[in-house]
Structure formats: C-alpha cells, structure tokens
Amino acid sequence: MAEKLKKRKDGRYAKQVTVGLKNGKPVKKTVYGKTIKEVEKNYRELMLLIDKGVVLDNRGITVKELRKEWYRIKKEGKVKRNTECAYSSIMKRIDAAIGDMKVKDVTMYTIESLLSDTQKEGLYKTSDSILIMLKAIFDYAIQNDIIARNPCKGLTVKYDEKTKRVLTEEEKENINNASGLKDREKVFLLLMRYTGMRRGEIFSLTRSDIDKKHMSIRINKTLIDNNGKPYVQENTKTEAGKRNVPILLPLAKPLFEYINSIDTEYLFLNRNGNLMAVNSKIISLIR
C-alpha cells in the first residue's frame, strides 16, 4: 500500500510503500525521484519486484544480488544480442571481484581497487565499461533506498584510444597485388580497403547483399560472438550503420569472380561450412 506523495526539503519527491510485515509491524520502503514522473516510475518498478516475490529486506543484499535485479529490471530483453554478450563479460568480472560484498560495505576505495587491477591487465576500455555499469547499478540502489550515496561518484577512467592511421601507398599496392593468398582472403582485404566495412559486417555478407546492377553492397546485419559461438544479428552496431556502399572498380572484378566461384549464400564460411568466428585466422592477415 502506498502513502501520499510528498515533496522533501531537498526538492525531491518521495512516496512510502508498505512492502510487508515483520514481527507484526509493517515494513516500509521509500521511493524517490527528482520529478513526480520519476517517483511513479520507481514506484512501479518496486511493485514489480514485490509481485515477483523479491526479498525487499535490502540491508544485507550483496553486489551480485543487486546486479542481477538491476539487469533483470533495467536491461533484460531491452538490449541487442551483442550488447548482452558485452554486459555478460563485464558482469562476470564484477561478480568475481566484489559480488559477495554487501552493497552497503562498498566504498570508493573498493571500486578504485577493482579498476586498478583491471587496468594492470592493460584492459583500460574494460575498466571504463565496469565503471559505467557500476555507476548505473549503484544509482539503482539509491533509487530503491538501499544506499544513500553512489561510491562511484567522481571516479573516471582515462585511457588513450588507439590512433588510427592511413595505409601507405606501398601497403595499398601490397593488398591489390597480394600473391599467395586465397581468393576469399584477397576479397576480404579488398572489402575492408574499399568499403570501410567492419569485419563482423563482412563475415555476415550474403549473395543477396551484393547488387551487381547498381554496383552496391547492402549492409544491414553483423556477425557477433555469442559466448564463443558466431551469430548473425539482423542489425548493425548502430542504426546509422545500416547503409549501402558503392562497389568501386578495383573491388568489382575480384568480388564478382569470387561470388561466381562459390555455391553458398554466405560469402565467408569456414572449412566446415559454418559461420566464421569474429576473430578467425583470416583476420591475422591485416594485423
């Protein structure tokens, strides 16, 4: 049962909810929000937890338990498959490092230590992803009146993005005149050079994506790593990634000859006739 909405001195709105009984006395929780709309949203999420039978005595809740509830309420069924895979990897690291800690015991130092250990492995981008996720998880804890302050507040991860460079004229010639390579290897390299496609987009190409009449390639899907298994996601990394790219003359002849030489729908399959893994050996040709 919810009580009347109230406005606090700090400007936030609050609504108190009776979530059960303990020792004959009502157990209450308070949901907060900067606006009435936000309070009502947080209230609905709380009631959803109650309906699902989630234990709401959160004083002893662990980071792993909170993380699971955050993901189930906020992300599950709402993100793309490749994002799910990325989240899974980050969540495993969080669970392994601080999953058994009680949420109320996590401090800024706890988070800094986790980030530092990850950065010592050279995984700066992963460290940044961990911080972003933990900030969201602890914000969720604040919304549900589990903690009062986010231990991630004020923390940042600084790292230098890898600098991209333009191929030299010699490197371009080496690609065009590559000898000793199989046809599919050369076509793969030419696709990267003349279209700018990502490797996952190339590995998901099918015959129907190649429009010989209009000399263009339709890009509307990508290959992702689904827990070690390749999976074609019927969307690109972003909506802006859906596009048509022209088939330039240096690419046209080798691409069309290669397509005519194979009898499969996908242009790139492994020796067993299955989808290529995103990190397949063919990638080593351009590293």
TrEMBL record:
Instruction: Note the InterPro entries from the entry.
Output: DNA_brk_join_enz (IPR011010), Integrase-like_cat_sf (IPR013762), Integrase_catalytic (IPR002104), Integrase_recombinase_N (IPR010998), Phage_int_M (IPR053876), Phage_Integrase (IPR050808)
Does DNA-binding show up as a keyword for this record?
yes
Gene Ontology process terms (BP):
DNA integration; DNA recombination
UniProtKB keywords: DNA integration, DNA recombination, DNA-binding
Family annotation (PROSITE patterns)? TYR_RECOMBINASE
Q: Where is the Tyr recombinase domain?
A: 162-287
Keyword Mitochondrion carried by entry: no
Q: Which GO terms describe its molecular function?
A: DNA binding
Q: Where are the transmembrane segments?
A: none
Name the family.
Answer: Belongs to the 'phage' integrase family.
Name-wise, this protein is Tyrosine-type recombinase/integrase
Q: Which organism is it from?
A: Anaerocolumna sedimenticola
